[in-house]
Amino acid sequence: MKEIYLDNNATTKVDERVFEEMRPYFCELYGNPSSMHFFGGQVQKKVDEARSRVASLLGALPDEIVFTACGTESDNAAIRSALEVFPEKRHIITSRVEHPAVLTQCRNLSKRGYRVTELNVDGNGQLDLAELERLVDEDTAIVSLMYANNETGVIFPIEEAAKIVKKKGALFHTDAVQAVGKIPLNMAESAIDMLSLSGHKLHAPKGVGVLYVRRGTPFRPMLVGGHQERGRRAGTENTASIIAMGKACELAEQYMADEAGRVREMRDRLERELTALIPNTRINGGGTDRLPNTVSIAMEFVEGEGILLLLSEKGICASSGSACTSGSLEPSHVLRAMGVPFTCAHGSIRFSLSRFTTDDDIDAVITELPPIISRLRSMSPFGREFLNK
Ligand SMILES: Cc1ncc(COP(=O)(O)O)c(C=O)c1O
Ligand code: FES
């Protein structure tokens, strides 16, 4: 069965051009970039090129780019660094809807004596900047807020948040794992100190990430040892994946217009048709700024896992929240924080598109999903009650 892959916020296909770029760095050009000889030197040159390509996508300088092993590592490293830079400061601010890479770490830190504030979001999943302004103080070491939410695609007003935070002397980090490559970012005109990204969300392989660290931002490494990454992340570089990341960023720059145009149009059509064909649906975060590739649709009186299984039988891959929380019976922490009623939160499905999504993929969902929902609703006691109304 040919898969209809609409789960690109969980992970993306490695672009063939990215794979071709990295391929020689396994069996042929396998030198260590730190070696003095020509064989390592030629790899170092490619790693430098990758750094410049990532920097160009972000509007950053090459020496502001630190390669890591994943988005999670970048998030962890940013927060830990800030706490080491300001040992006297004991307050951290984040939000209730962050990815576990940030949220779990902050909750662990709160058990170790740090004061952690998790900002609320409104019904659209949006932040209240006045709340941030009120809560950030001289004791705040770092504020970490995501650029765009992985479940709903909701985009936070990150530049405004960063400016508020910088006025109070705290460091500002953003998890931009879902934003990079989908919406334009420009670090040259930004107040952000640190920013995380992850290769596998933008058509590079899994297991490579980046932490952007603004020039002049004090930084303490999480991994110590060798002098790699100018002492900011020890460990022999994952050269092939770094080179892949560079190529993926170069391609992302070229595809940004596709995201804003063709991908957004497909997403909008999917949303329009599904809400017209299926009664009692709503778009989570539908009233605010969102990523062009993501839709989270809540359907009352059905259960997300059931929908996913029946879609999967038709070859359609979607998700009922974040990959890490599906499998548990708890509704998503993101939808709960938004106050989505329990009956809708459980029936929420996320479709996330990419440059490889076609109109046929969208047509398939529009054809297959409405009968699946009617069938599930006719089986559920709540659904039957609703259908009989
Ligand atoms: C918003 C967000 N942050 C962080 C991560 C973690 O990235 P990685 O899988 O590279 O560790 C993900 C992906 O699951 C994500 O969606
Ligand atoms: S680990 Fe990726 S969505 Fe949670």
Automatic annotation (TrEMBL):
Its cofactor is pyridoxal 5'-phosphate. Keywords: Iron, Iron-sulfur, Metal-binding, Pyridoxal phosphate, Transferase. Coiled coil: none annotated. GO terms for molecular function: cysteine desulfurase activity. SUPFAM superfamilies: PLP-dependent transferases. It catalyses: (sulfur carrier)-H + L-cysteine = (sulfur carrier)-SH + L-alanine. Residues 4-365 form the Aminotransferase class V domain. It comes from the Bacteria. Its EC number is 2.8.1.7. It is an enzyme of class 2 (transferase). Transmembrane segments: none annotated. Belongs to the class-V pyridoxal-phosphate-dependent aminotransferase family. NifS/IscS subfamily. Homodimer. Catalyzes the removal of elemental sulfur atoms from cysteine to produce alanine. Seems to participate in the biosynthesis of the nitrogenase metalloclusters by providing the inorganic sulfur required for the Fe-S core formation. This is Cysteine desulfurase.
